[in-house]
Structures are given as C-alpha cells and as structure tokens.
Amino acid sequence: MKQGYFITFEGPDGSGKTTISTLVFNKLKEHGYRAIYTREPGGSSIAEQIRQIILDPQNIEMDKKTEALLYAASRRQHLVEKILPHLQDGDIVISDRFVDSSLAYQGVGREIGLQEVWDINMFAIEGRVPDLTIFLDIDPELGLARINNRSFKDRLDQESLEFHKKVFSGYQQIKEKYQERMVIFDATQTIEELTSEVYDTIINWIATKESHDMD
Ligand code: TMP
After folding, report:
1. Are 61 and 23 in contact, with CB atoms under 8 Å apart?
2. How far are the Cα atoms of 42, 69, 133 from residue 48, in angstroms, in the given order?
3. What are the pLDDT digits (tens) for 32-63?
4. Rounded to the nearest whole angstrom, what is the distance from the C-alpha of residue 2 to the centroid of ligand 1?
5. Residue 107: CB within 6 Å of ligand 1?
6. Ligand 1 in reach of 105 Cβ (< 6 A)
7. Domains of the chain by range and CATH?
8. Which of 105, 118, 155, 161 to mutate to test the pocket of ligand 1 (most atoms within 8 A of CB)?
9. What pTM was estimated for this model as a whole?
10. Whose CA is nearest to atom 16 of ligand 1?
11. How confident is the model over 145-191, as pLDDT tens digits?
12. What SS3 class is residue 98?
C-alpha cells in the first residue's frame, strides 16, 4: 500500500497553530481525505504522560538537557506508536508540532545548540522528518500578547519574552535550512483566510506528489 503523508504545523506560541491545524484537518475529513490529527508533546498515552512532566509549571528545577531528552523521548513513542502505523496505512498524519519545535525551543531558545538537539532527535526519529511543514509566522511580542489572557500557562508559556525571541530566531534559521519542505504563512491573517490558504496549499501539494508518483 502507498504510504501516507506526514504534515506538521509549526510556529511560535500564540501563532494560532492549534486552531488552524484543527480547522484544516476537519476540512480535509469533510472532503473525504483519510487523515488523523495528533500533537506534540503527546499524541499517545505514554507521550502524553511525558508531556505532563515537561509542561508542569511546578517543575522549575528541570535541567535544559533533561527537557530536550524528554521531548525526544515523547517524540519517539509518538512516532512508533501512532505516526508510523498510520503512515503505513496510507493516512495523512497532521501533527501540531514535531522535531522543528525542539530545534527552535531547545536548540536555540535554551541555547543547547541546533546540532546537539538534531543529534538526539535523530536517535529518536531515525531520519523520519515531515514531508511537508506548514509554518505560521508571528512576531514573538504579538504571539505572547495573544496567549497572555489564557487561564492556564504551561512551563514554557511562562518563559520570558527574551526566551521567546530566541525561539523566534531559531525558527528563522530552521525555515532557511529546511526550505524544501516548509511553506510559510503570515499568522496575522484572519482564521478564515489562513484556513483556506493552508488547506489549498496542502491539497495542491498532495496533487503534485500524486501526479509525480504516477510518472
Ligand atoms: P503547545 O503549546 O503547542 O501544546 O506546546 C507546548 C509547549 O512545548 C510550547 O511552548 C512549545 C514547547 N515545545 C518545545 O519546547 N519543544 C518541543 O519539541 C515541542 C514539541 C514543544
């Protein structure tokens, strides 16, 4: 059977990723595409348990390398338990975040280094990078202002503007480095505009892929 497509959504906190990815996923289902929706950190029972530990605002003493390893561990479990089986079944897998988040947040935000974070993640994902990444771009000040009125802020949401600016600069490097699989959108557009643009991009990308596969 033909493998499915692995599509990730990335962007800083407050970029609207979860809202847009959910709406796009629903639209794909309405149009008859076989798709599943998942997220990181989490996406499977064990990975969700690791998520609780990572994001618990009380875990202030967590070392940055422990944090990076926990994200990679949760990613490994999510990949083998959920992502790969669905891709094997030919489904489109939509994931709210994946490895690029670790590169931006731990690699650059926490200053562990892009290469170091890439290396531990390669151990976890064995080269299974996304086929297509939808990147929602937003200035960190604006992103943080959007999440400021959330009733619950996780451990990373509570980080300083300075940290979020570093994450933003990390994402700018990643966008350059992995241009071949990234499509960038201005996240300040309306929800309707973004949903429709992202949806059209995905179905056109799939159509192109499938026409090449027939060649
Ligand atoms: P979420 O707000 O998209 O659910 O993600 C939770 C937080 O975890 C968010 O602040 C981004 C952060 N994160 C990382 O720092 N590294 C990662 O690898 C992932 C997947 C998320």
Report:
1. no
2. 4, 15, 22
3. 999 999 999 999 999 999 999 999 999 999 99
4. 31
5. no
6. yes
7. 5-214 (3.40.50.300)
8. 105
9. 0.97
10. 102
11. 999 888 888 998 889 999 999 999 999 999 999 999 999 999 999 99
12. coil
